[in-house]
């Protein structure tokens, strides 16, 4: 099986600054996340949440320390490989123009039926009996894989783009998912759909969700509270 098989995460003495003459943004972070654990990351603006997420994809390299996924130091893995095996759902995903099919299946690897199944599992199209699709979601567009996707995915809302990224992660059977919750208000229904998808469809995957409210991650296993690039708390949500 291909790495990562379990999705265990370990940060060892992680220090990050963006340039030698700039201050540290993350100060010596040490933490471990077990396979399949759902962990929220909270903290005020500028506390280093996105920097932490980006460092898993080596968009920022550690100044000191290292990140291990299933005991492999991610700095030893090729960038393309690394970025295709972990999934990041950014604050505002960029989506290339094309069709819904090409968006979800960049390398033409999957059957249409598998792609429709992934769209169902993220609630972008109705799953038979369920009325789970929110009124906000344009189910017609998602029911046709030939639907046109305009440059940047401008015909989708931010929440829909995040759900599309999650559908892609399901197709890839991604074991590690990092999600940077949209800052721009995602409507309540879409927020619920994202939460439901994480609980039910990614039960076996390790999830790190950057959230703006404790409410979003209240049913997660644990929450990291970042304060100025340091871990102030790492505990069950109920204890915060
Ligand atoms: P928000 O809640 O607003 O998204 P955040 O917790 O995600 O904030 P980061 O984006 O990780 O915060 O930023 C942490 C610190 O690093 C901030 O002081 C920010 O100004 C700085 N920073 C972020 N990106 C860069 C960059 N590319 N170059 C230099 N400094 C940066
Ligand atoms: Mg951020």
From TrEMBL:
The keyword Repeat applies. GO terms for molecular function: ATP binding; ATP hydrolysis activity; ATPase-coupled transmembrane transporter activity. Keywords: ATP-binding, Membrane, Nucleotide-binding, Repeat, Transmembrane, Transmembrane helix. The keyword Membrane applies. Residues 9-240 form the ABC transporter domain. It comes from the Eukaryota. One of its GO terms (cellular component) is fungal-type vacuole membrane. This is ATP-dependent bile acid permease. The chain holds residues 64 to 303 of 332 of the full protein.
